[in-house]
Amino acid sequence: MSTFKSQRSNVALDSQKSTRATPTIMGKVSAPFFCSTLLLVIIIILFDFFAKLIFGIGLSNTVDQIIQLSKVQIYYSRIVVVVIFVLSLIIWLNWRSSKLATKNQLILWAPLFTLLLLNIRITSESFSEVLRTANFSITILSCILLAATPGISKLFFKQIYLCVFLSSLIGVVLFAIGSKFSYFTDGYGFMYTGVFAHKDKASLSAALGLILGVHYYLQERKRFHFFVIILQVIALILASTLSSVFAALIGVIAIIFPRPAFIFISVNSMLLPFYHTTYSSFALILGKNSTFTGRTTLWDFTIFEGIKKPIFGHGFQHLSQTDEWSKMLEQKFKSDAFFIPHAHNLWVELFYKFGIVGIVVHIMMLVILPLYIIKYKNLTHTSAIAFSIMTAMMAKSALTLPFLTSDVSSYIWVFSISVLAVDQLSMKRV
User: What is the pTM of this model?
Assistant: First the structure.
């Protein structure tokens, strides 16, 4: 609890940072208003709040079709990465952003950038792998630019909070009135997705809303935040996505016990796929089968394939695009109504893509670095939020792939680490 008390004492510091004098743009339009508007656009694009309306996905009433991304969606996702980077760059240029913070973050992420660059030279065999590497690198650069902008981090979390509140509210209301728009099928049957295209994004949105709601409620004690917490719990139950429910639980625990919660989930996320039989009873407690809904098969197969190139891995290719993966699915999963895109564990996926070298680099970036930063106990409220969300993303890494992509989960994770680093480095200078 002492950590949280120190967070509250530094809220004023956050406010001072966010209200520094800023230049104006186009005469009467102030930089804060201009940049906050662009930031809201980034969040709306990032979460794909409107994708279901644009692409028509989520409206299928059959369960015997293969659920795959259309070419339009694939191109759209690639364009989104560039659009977010451009908007982030505009924000960075039009606000008095810290060049020192930008430089420090580039140094901070240098090991991962080096790994990606070496991976292209050593293992990449196709343009698609180079493109994935570029997309992920641009994702990191966008987060670096945003985190280096004073006041943006606080505004970023606040805008996410309001957006996920509205999305959950609309989704739950649609569910209550029986609207088919709030359902989708990916082969397992009809599932609640709210305003999103897939239940994982709906559940991730609810998990983030729950964590943010608890933070803001502890800070302000307003009834609105309590209402948001209840709403997000309902949305989580409806979506029933194990990884997001687990992430929300760990993220809330990290608010009170940051270091213990982070260490616990980091260790267990990495050990789970290698010692999954030990964790089988835990899966049964959560209402799942001992295979974590077939994930153990994916883990064993991916580890077996990764051992063939254990040092640098197979590159930024998708194991799911290989003939071996397709044969495994045909033998082990008796359904042609859905396609499994990855191994559903970050650390197994890392081993396959980047080998032992990649795992070491990511442990440095995602585990050791945050633990080093968090040893400074005077966390600002924004830093505390970032650390809780980062811990939640680590929890998701045990059962899905919230990193190595240009999806919302990667942006949230990278941004949280960068925010934590920038805040702590600025406090050390003070």
Answer: 0.86
